[in-house]
Specification:
Number of domains: 1
CATH architecture: 4-Layer Sandwich
CATH class: Alpha Beta
Order of helices and strands: EEEHEHEHHHEEEHHEEHEHEHE
Mean pLDDT: 87
CATH topology: Metallo-beta-lactamase, Chain A
Oligomer: single chain
Strand content: 15-25%
Number of strands: 13
Shape: globular
Length: 351
Amino acid sequence: MIIDKYELRFFPVGKTSKGGDAILLRLYDAQNNCCVIVIDGGYTDDGQAILDYLSELGIDRIDLVINTHPDEDHILGLLTIFNDENIEIGELLMNRPWLDANLKVSFFKDGRITENSLNKRLTEKFKKAYELEQIAIEKIGEENIIHPERGMTFKNVLTILGPSTQLYRKHLLASDKTPEVEGLSSRKFSLKKLNFVRYIKGTFIKWIYGEQTSDINETSIVLSLDLGDHKFLFTGDVGQDGLNEALDFCETLHGCKATDFTHIQIPHHGSRKNLNPTLIKRIGAKYYYLSCPPDGFSEGHPSKRLLNKIHEIYPDAKIYPTQGSWLANYKNLKIDCHPANYYGIFDEIDE
């Protein structure tokens, strides 16, 4: 793939306070052949929006579809895409807990669990993911459903950084999707609210340490996209554990630094449970992108405290939300060329 021609588009997901992710990437080779990659599909209507956009471009093939994790705000739109008879799909990359997590009945407290009952529970708990798998088998064949492994690379520019098998299984077992496991500690966190404050540029933003996202979010696939001077980090809904692990692996695999990333997708629609000041400093990106719904502030998606913390640490950081409109639409992206809807400093931050 050539590195100076591409399109990255974040589709707006959500109509009120509930958001999701739907990302389209177009890459080109030296002969100007286009490769289309979809990372998550949002809700049902968002999958249709992706199809409509491709139809407008005269494109009838998606080379790679990636489901970062099985939450409905990421996967329902992919069902729409796979159910469309007019679109050809090459491969699907997804985790399938009932098949590739290597869970054993001996892991669980309940001695009545059998292998069959465990698999049934998993397919029921991950109902939409299982539905996607079944549709994909029919549409593209089992051989074209890929199990994500760290270090796997597509078109020499898109690389899987996480999760590791160990971290994936750990958080899957700790989630509410699997039976109770002996010896696992709870991830519940009792939150003590901070007082409401007014933010003044250049002042210190108090931070709440110890908050954690859900275990299922921690199983999100993390991806790097290396386009020369532009290095993107796609994060799904990953939490602090998974993001740190992915950055560790990136540095080990490529000998690079986390600060090499120039652009990052803020995970989980801007939730402060997924990033902390240490991670913000570790990555050091200047450009931040996030998919968040029109009324997302009411749910902390995005967190004003998080956005202001980024600006406190990096005053020149640029943060771009979807907020109901196209976020990025580039064929030739330049560092000094920014999309609309830039988030500046907030006068007030959430509790």
